[in-house]
Amino acid sequence: MTCCLMSIITVLAYILVPISIFKIFLKLTTGWDRSPTCLVGKTAIITGANSGIGFYTAQDFAKRGARVILACRNRQKAEEAKFKIIEATGNPNVVVRIVDLSSLASVRAFAKEINETETRLDILVNNAGLGGMEHQLTADGLSLIMQSNHFGPFLLTHLLTELLKKCAPSRVVNVSSKAADYGKLDLNNLNGPPDSYFTKSRDYANTKLCNILFTAELARRLKGSGVETYVIQPGLVKTEILQHLPLINRLAVQALASITHKNGEEGAQTSIYASVSKDVIGKSGEYFGECKKWRMPSAAKNKELARKLWEKSEELVQLTHQERQLLQ
Ligand SMILES: NC(=O)c1ccc[n+]([C@@H]2O[C@H](COP(=O)([O-])OP(=O)(O)OC[C@H]3O[C@@H](n4cnc5c(N)ncnc54)[C@H](OP(=O)(O)O)[C@@H]3O)[C@@H](O)[C@H]2O)c1
């Protein structure tokens, strides 16, 4: 009996000790934003703010006193998030606006409403994103994942640029991923299934590489306007991002994520840092992780690729000639 108990304790120790050490390592290496920045009088939009990283980013801005616009596609989930944020921060200036980034018409309607009803925009966080789904096309004929993660935010940023410029100094923060390191873009096949066995992960990686290339080219085009833009990677965070995986895979990933991933609040820190810290001023176009400068994937340093992706995106989101002039 004693021998059996000892064996169980030994096995548990072999499992629990490395997990605990890993957890301590994760806590020690997670970057935290310590900026005292007050956001009273400022307005921030966070896309995909009803869950995960976006939720905690929005909650932080509300704590700092901002007017916070939760830009979400599901009204019920967004209203629930709004209620929680108001309750946690005591800031009643939190509103829901509906946008589906996988629809060009929805992005246009959202931007029109913001431009007509908001007097200012100081921070735009392009946070919403999805991953782990089968390749499919949207009603606009674009890849669902590419439109949600890149084309939608590209169009949205374009249509909000005038308001951002009016409120300069202002910021655009794009949420990418370490997965961008594995991106391999084919500009002639941005909406087709990638030519790879690892289709789903390559599809996601490509969208996240686009986020970094977009930021670099946006920074170049915004130079001198007072609007700065940064791109971040949040690390591995336990969120709803892989909700589209088949059940078995999802359960396995979630079990692993409980050990190896940050929680949502930890995952939001670099988004918050890039949005409010004084440290990043003058570093427009740069890439951050763990609240410090992060190594760019080599493909993301290709300026020519960034310019060509921009031009291709202008065409695919059907920007008018006049709209293109906003960011020439
Ligand atoms: N979690 C990670 O480990 C990790 C790592 C690297 C990068 N990221 C990036 O972090 C960002 C936030 O993801 P998360 O991990 O916090 O995942 P999440 O909990 O699933 O949050 C994603 C948010 O985006 C929204 N969204 C998805 N597609 C949308 C669309 N077409 N229109 C409008 N909103 C849409 C979701 O809305 P619904 O609730 O309605 O689905 C949700 O609010 C993403 O850009 C992701 O790529 C995450």
From TrEMBL:
Pfam families: adh_short (PF00106)
Family membership: Belongs to the short-chain dehydrogenases/reductases (SDR) family.
Keyword presence, Oxidoreductase: yes
SUPFAM superfamilies referenced in this protein's UniProt entry, alphabetically: NAD(P)-binding Rossmann-fold domains (SSF51735)
Keyword Membrane: yes
Membrane-traversing stretches: 6-26
Name of protein: Uncharacterized protein
GO-annotated molecular function: oxidoreductase activity
Keywords: Membrane, Oxidoreductase, Transmembrane, Transmembrane helix
